[in-house]
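WARN retry 2 of 3 for item q-0093 after timeout on previous attempt; input resubmitted unchanged.
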Amino acid sequence: MDSSTISKSGLARLAFAGAALLTLTACQIQTPADLLLAPTYDSRYVPETYGTKYACKAYRASGKTSGWRGIVGGKKYDFDKTLNVSREGCFETQAECRAFLTYMSGYVDFPIYSRCQPI
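OK item q-0093 returned
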């Protein structure tokens, strides 16, 4: 191989890497409307099961008599405010209940109570 072949090969790789970089960068660009009007993060938000199939009232209304009840309680900190948080959900399996507890642990900063118990 001569030096002209190596430099052409290196130049082709550099051009390909540059094109890939520009393409990926273009995917990240947001318009001013996106930056100004997009939903913002709410540090006080904690998911609820009310109105879903995991709400205990809906679970019992569907005729299910056995399962697992998950309860999470604790505190959530929002800068200078402390919010008391409690949520419950009813699930068919213990694995679903434990997944609920794990999911909720991401929203409760200081858990006081977190438990799955049979219904």
